[in-house]
């Protein structure tokens, strides 16, 4: 047996943390001396301590750890534990992806500042607007009300289902905005991943939906996501100026990001707004209206 001080040293856990873990029942001493109250820990508990350090490194809270601790004791619990670990993996991957995008934007901004000064040309003028049918596809879907930074987790769940069922994506993922206005901590949105339906023997997975085909005004945005609002503004301006009105939640479709070193200029996002024509206006006959 080891004293609390000795165990703190060899387990690499502070005395303060050991006292807290004892109080909440996460890691209680193997023996408590009834005479003097001294706490002693066993060699076996080093494995428990190592697991707690791992969970802490992964970003689990103390409450999470208390919930995870008993799961490894049963087959059913281990399956749940695997699911919790996968959820944390997707969460961390989303955080890494977000940081990677920010790093790319920082590099691009530095390159812009290092180059010659350019005339400030209104960026919305460069957006070409298309009017065409969009949708009409099958996709894996996950709709939740979450914080904006958790969007990556929704998409991650779809890819997890895709790989688990050996399915093939038929395009980049979508984000559909079911909520009017900007609420960073509680956004009601739906992530969708278009898939190819197998020719035979296909059992539809949970969350498979058919995304309806709609008449949409759309435009393509190349570059930083921080300026994606310009694309939305361009489409909304076109809708207003050409006798249409928005008729459903807008959505964005993202081209797969390149592997390796990422630069914001390589990001491609298409912005869609379902529309209907206002009474008294003649429908557009041109598929492309570049600068209206």
Automatic annotation (TrEMBL):
This is MerR family transcriptional regulator. The lineage of its organism: Bacteria, Bacillati, Bacillota, Bacilli, Bacillales.
